[in-house]
Amino acid sequence: MFKSIFRLLLCLGHGMLCCQIMIGIWLSGGQADAASEQPNIILIIADDFGPEMGAYGDLNDLTPNLDALAASGAMFLNGHVTAASCSPSRGSMFTGLYPHQHGMFGLSHINGAPPMHDDVPKLPNELKRLGYTTAIVGKTHFQPFDQFDWDYVETNGQKVVYERNVRWMNEKGFGFIDAHKDSGPLFLVMSYVDPHRGGPAYGPGKNQEFPRVVSGLPEVPIPPDATHPIPYLAVDTPAVRSEISDYYAAVQRLDVGVGEFMTGLDQRLVPENTLIVFIGDHGADVTRGKISAYHSATHIPYLVRWTQHISAGQIRDELVSTIDLFPSFLDAAGAETVKPDVRQTGLSFIDLLCGKRSSSEWREYLFTEYLTHVPWHLYPRYTVFDGRFHYILNIWGDERENPLVAREYDEAWLAATAPGFSDLKVAAAYARVEKPPQNELFDLQKDPFSLINLADNPEYAQLLRQAYVRLNEWRLETKDPFLDSEFLADFDQQMQAIHEAYKKR
Ligand SMILES: [Ca+2]
């Protein structure tokens, strides 16, 4: 109770707002009921979505509903996932651990690929312990799924089912809310599939497209010739515009879906008693986005709304990670111990957004990693970002080629690696994707799209050393098993064996 009052008093919305809140507490005799102390928690995840929103300055400006959500609470400018691959990233959301800690190093659906360790903290289980009813609607893509305690998951009796149709998704979410909203606080994950690519399998000649229109949405997809390519592609051709317009059409559909979900949500649950977070699970599926380690790979939209607790219109530049979701949700839910597991290093952004923790007390360095996607994409790399400089350590850099560059379906890749491509700076950046050096260092302030590698520039030698030392400290602190070269060699062999078995199927 002390904690709740303390937090309310410190909320950024001063004056009349705090008066209203205090009156509410007095009217309830100083005993706010359990429901009002424990907000409903709604986590909305978009699949393969970087901050391509109007609110983040995207030139196509196609996200009025997401922008409205951003304006109604806090928008983090420096939100990142832990890894730019679906399963490892999602594992971090639900455990508060980095992939090298939770153990699901790559995609979870390939036979033999490692699942998360049995003993990881599990977000829905912890919230259930605190009285929540839990549900996940849509894409899951993490294992061992059955050890996570969901009260509601849509299945066909054997496995989880979901659709790209955003209205189908919303209908399932509303069904869960309507059935359980009177029985205590809810934890609901809405995990949309857009703007993930869809269609046939990856591979030469099997161009995997972004699905432009699904179930009639969007009603008016952006035309190719009006589309601004995603800026960090740094390539603009008619073919790129055509492909990327399909990505943005999928973003339009996501925006409609989230907008309609928000409308229905606010009709069902009291806004001041409902904490909402919107994130992507990593950047767009284009070169130097998904499945890489660049800033653009892990940078995501990161929005938080909690009406009357978090003042609207906050634009924040702290470095936040998806490992912060776990402690933040437990904090909001009133858990006595915000960090139930010593391995967790996330921070509660509730404290930050309500003024209990100042910006100067927040983290100075943000860490990400990439280990593998499917097992035959193993290429360990680690990054540290201080808000300006982004350092990437490629463990096999200068030694092995990156196995995941054959993006025959990626028009920017095709353009930037074609003979005669004239922008040498951009060509060099794309060449580094295929043959990474051991060290990459970018000044995001001067070079926002990570095109100029400063690692070999003597002027940055000291900064490079410091970044390497800090990164190594983090790997030691978080007990990264890949620090052991024998562990890495054994894992490499295991992954190759899985690949051989997969090819013989
Ligand atoms: Ca994804």
Concise synopsis of the structure shown:
It is built from 16 helices and twelve strands.
Please specify the SSE layout and strand pairing.
Layout: H1 2-10, H2 16-27, H3 34-37, E1 40-46, H4 64-71, E2 74-80, H5 86-95, H6 99-102, H7 123-129, E3 133-138, E4 152-153, H8 166-180, E5 186-191, H9 238-268, E6 274-280, H10 295-298, E7 299-305, E8 314-321, H11 325-332, H12 349-353, E9 366-370, E10 381-385, E11 389-394, H13 411-416, H14 424-434, E12 439-443, H15 461-477, H16 485-503
Parallel strand pairs: 1-5, 1-6, 2-8, 3-4, 3-5
Antiparallel strand pairs: 2-7, 6-7, 9-10, 10-11, 11-12
Helix pairs in contact: 4-9, 8-9
The protein binds calcium ion.
Protein name: Sulfatase
Keywords: Calcium, Hydrolase, Metal-binding
Family: Belongs to the sulfatase family.
Describe what this molecule looks like in 3D.
The strands form two sheets. An eight-stranded mixed sheet has the order 4-3-5-1-6-7-2-8, sandwiched between helices. Strands 9-10-11-12 form a four-stranded antiparallel sheet, covered by helices on one side. It is built from 16 helices and twelve strands. With 505 residues, it is of the alpha/beta class. A hairpin with a 3-residue loop joins strand 10 (381-385) and strand 11 (389-394). 46% of the residues are buried. Calcium ion (CA) binds at residues 47-48, 86, 196, 281-282. The site of calcium ion has 6 residues, from loops. InterPro entries: Alkaline_phosphatase_core_sf (IPR017850), Sulfatase (IPR050738), Sulfatase_CS (IPR024607), Sulfatase_N (IPR000917). Pfam families: Sulfatase. Belongs to the sulfatase family. Keywords: Calcium, Hydrolase, Metal-binding.
